[in-house]
Write a structure and sequence with these properties.
four-stranded antiparallel sheet; alpha+beta; globular; hpI Integrase, Chain A; 6% strand; single chain; 4 strands
């Protein structure tokens, strides 16, 4: 009608108060998650390549361990990669043999290898509650195990006299770092190798897939969703965006159950004619 746009200030820009409100809305309503969860066979492929790689390929070995930790601890990329964030550090790790907590600086390699439980403590991670501890037990697998991954990282960092504030993903004697892009490339290579039987394309995978993968694996194991939310530190039903109904084992029996349970009648109200 010829009137001035009420959203604009004297410089004909969106008023800063509206800008802040819109930004706040975007933060509280994130975009839908488009990445696919990573099934365990992809992680096993990464682990196999790590075991076959040269002992000097410290970047790939660190990448493998961080992929395993991200899967089992349901971590966000900023919590375990060197990408200008505050990832978990050596000082945030605890290892246990039964109830006994090991001294990570003085325990022998053989003693650390006997650990059957490991934990990470949130200290400076921006997405966690400070002081909160999350833990995982040994899987019994010879390589794909969160406790064994923690032991490998501790021994590697100790061999380089790393201080307690060193990120777990730190790699020495190379400018390369374990970043989300490195993780994404590693995962996509393995998805490409395993082929389309996985049900998704390499382009649908990224470092964020690991958090979704851990949550989906717990769901398929019939773990209560409230427990999954606690493990993943979700404070709302946002967790449900990570649980993929596209997983075949989850959905394969539902149509039969729906067919069997779909034959029912309702309790009539007063308006329904009675015979």
């Amino acid at each position: 009608m010829g009137a001035e746009d009420p959203r604009l200030n004297s410089a004909h820009q969106i008023d800063f108060r509206l800008q802040r409100m819109i930004k706040s809305w975007k933060s509280s309503d994130p975009a839908p998650l488009h990445v696919k969860p990573i099934p365990i066979q992809v992680i096993r492929r990464v682990a196999t390549l790590s075991q076959l790689s040269s002992a000097n390929d410290s970047l790939y070995q660190a990448t493998t361990d961080m992929i395993i930790l991200a899967f089992f601890f349901l971590l966000r990329p900023g919590e375990y990669t060197n990408n200008d964030n505050t990832p978990f550090c050596l000082k945030d790790v605890q290892l246990f043999i039964g109830p006994r907590c090991l001294n990570l600086q003085t325990s022998s390699a053989a003693e650390l290898a006997q650990a059957r439980f490991g934990s990470l403590t949130f200290t400076d991670q921006k997405n966690g509650v400070r002081g909160e501890v999350i833990g995982q037990a040994s899987t019994g697998d010879s390589f794909v195990c969160p406790v064994k991954s923690l032991v490998r990282r501790i021994l590697y960092l100790r061999s380089h006299n790393a201080p307690p504030t060193t990120p777990l993903s730190r790699v020495f004697n190379t400018p390369a770092r374990v970043t989300p892009s490195v993780l994404t490339a590693t995962l996509r290579d393995c998805v490409q190798y395993l082929g389309p039987d996985l049900g998704f394309l390499p382009s649908e995978v990224s470092a964020r897939s690991l958090r979704a993968a851990g949550a989906t694996a717990l769901l398929l194991a019939r773990v209560d969703t409230d427990v999954i939310r606690l493990i993943g530190r979700w404070r709302s039903d946002e967790m449900l965006r990570y649980l993929h109904v596209q997983a075949y084992p989850l959905m394969r029996n539902y149509s039969r159950l729906m067919l069997d349970a779909g034959d029912y009648t309702l309790i009539p109200n007063q308006l329904v004619p009675q015979r």
